[in-house]
Q: What sequence folds into this?
């Protein structure tokens, strides 16, 4: 609990939580903008939100579409934002030379790692809750049709499931930031994962590549793509477990000579 309280204190005194909150606020607002344009493309064109010859197709301005957009945003944007959270939690100790102070404390290294991962999980879930609440508010203001209890429950459940899977897939980023002793290695792994996820999903093998599973689950690849199924979810869980375990083992056994 002391280690977790320390991580909370670090986050509270940092601007990074505000940056991540702003990112998810923008995501919800962009979704609302798309819904507004779909509601009335002629009005959006007159306001300069849409080119004179442009048109949006393939969606309806209703609650199911909006929830689907928020889930897709969590799948892709969440990997970047959640990855940023883990890069900061782990990489900052090395970039700011505070890791030696942590290791000098009478606290097990694995306890420190566990506190950081718990902090990351809570942080990312709070961001997801923020996204849902903003989505409900924006959708209500726009007066989107299709509101039913089943639609809301299924939409929120999809966003929650995608958020949890994305957090699990971001755990190897913590390992990269630790082994690389700084921010840049974690950012590099994060960008590589996002890029490869898009390429593999486009090739039709996303159900076998864990980092493509959240996007497939949210419907980002389209209805004609293969569903990730139980195998994809299992791979996500295995990656998350391996990421946490490998990071804890590295912190416990690695020589910290700087």
A:
């Amino acid at each position: 609990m002391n280690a977790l309280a320390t991580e909370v204190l670090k986050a509270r005194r940092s601007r990074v939580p505000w940056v991540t909150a702003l990112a998810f606020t923008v995501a919800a607002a962009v979704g609302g903008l798309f819904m507004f344009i779909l509601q009335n493309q002629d009005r959006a064109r007159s306001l300069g939100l849409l080119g004179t010859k442009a048109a949006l197709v393939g969606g309806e301005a209703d609650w199911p579409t909006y929830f689907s957009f928020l889930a897709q945003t969590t799948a892709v944007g969440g990997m970047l934002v959640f990855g940023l959270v883990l890069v900061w939690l782990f990489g900052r100790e090395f970039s700011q030379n505070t890791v030696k102070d942590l290791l000098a404390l009478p606290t097990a290294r694995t306890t420190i790692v566990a506190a950081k991962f718990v902090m990351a999980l809570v942080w990312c879930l709070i961001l997801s809750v923020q996204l849902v609440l903003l989505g409900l508010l924006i959708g209500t203001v726009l007066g989107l049709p299709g509101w039913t209890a089943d639609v809301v429950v299924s939409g929120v459940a999809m966003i929650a499931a995608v958020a949890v899977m994305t957090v699990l897939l971001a755990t190897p980023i913590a390992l990269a930031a630790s082994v690389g002793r700084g921010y840049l290695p974690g950012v590099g792994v994060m960008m590589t994962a996002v890029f490869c996820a898009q390429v593999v999903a486009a090739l039709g093998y996303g159900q076998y590549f864990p980092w493509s599973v959240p996007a497939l689950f949210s419907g980002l690849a389209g209805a004609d793509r293969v569903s990730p199924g139980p195998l994809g979810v299992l791979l996500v869980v295995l990656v998350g477990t391996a990421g946490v375990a490998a990071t804890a083992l590295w912190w416990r056994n690695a020589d910290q000579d700087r």
